[in-house]
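README: folding subset

This subset contains proteins for which both the sequence and a predicted structure token string are available. Records are stored as plain text. Below is the entry for Cation diffusion facilitator family transporter (297 residues), shown exactly as it appears on disk.
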Amino acid sequence: MNNNRKSIYSALAANVLIALTKFIAGAFTNSSSMISEGIHSTVDTANQLLILYGLKRSKKLPDQSHPFGYGKELYFWSFVVSILIFGLGGALSIYQGISHIIEPELMKNPFWNYIVLFLSLIFEGTSFIIAIKEFNKTRNGLGWWDAIIKSKDPSSFLVVFEDGAAVAGLIIVTVLMAFSHSLQMPVLDGLASVIVGLLLVFVSLILARESRSLLMGEGIAPETRLKISKLVEQDAAVIKTKNILSTYQSPEEVVLMLIVDFQDHLDTDDITEAIVRIRNHIKNEFQFVRYVIIQPE
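--- output ---
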């Protein structure tokens, strides 16, 4: 997770640097799309702080009220972030844009807007490149979409989505703002705000889908279940692995329950020894499996 923190910190620094300047430039030039970009950067800043908070909370040690630890805190705060992107980012940007389309106002001298957009592209682009590099370290040869679907750590791809949406939004705003000013069509500035809002809504839905699945108790992949089943059945005491139940408590912690059919001639002591042996084999082979519960059939 240290690599993920690096990308989060870089994104946080970039958004803090540019959020205020976007609002000032938007207010000074009367640009709806620039105000939307300011909202976008502010929401992104809050999101990164929440993810860092979730990462910290997820590291709390188990206690009596949470015997399996606090790992799911990360999934909860990731889901909150997706809601914030949808509500404060997407919905407000769309509202701001529609308001500007209904009552268009001519943009004042957009010079400072272009300066802010140019600097924002540098900061956001740098953060985006860092996020991509850090995410590539976790992909293990998988394609981008497969890596996102199979990832159990929302913080690893959340910054990539946020920064990617930010860069795309900046390009959209720059192009439509230029047309709006040159053609004296303020409606285009409002349209840019609506497009940025729709982009944020799209990103929020993807993040919400992944975070919800993990929060609701997503288990290990089918290929991993098959490997564990074969490993268990290699033990001489086992006839068959009847069922495997699992859930991710955090990106690095899995609770695993096995229902195993043991040889009929084994007594209680033999089964107990086999359970200990199987548990150790699984933990040695799969480092992310923290708890193994084995129930004889």
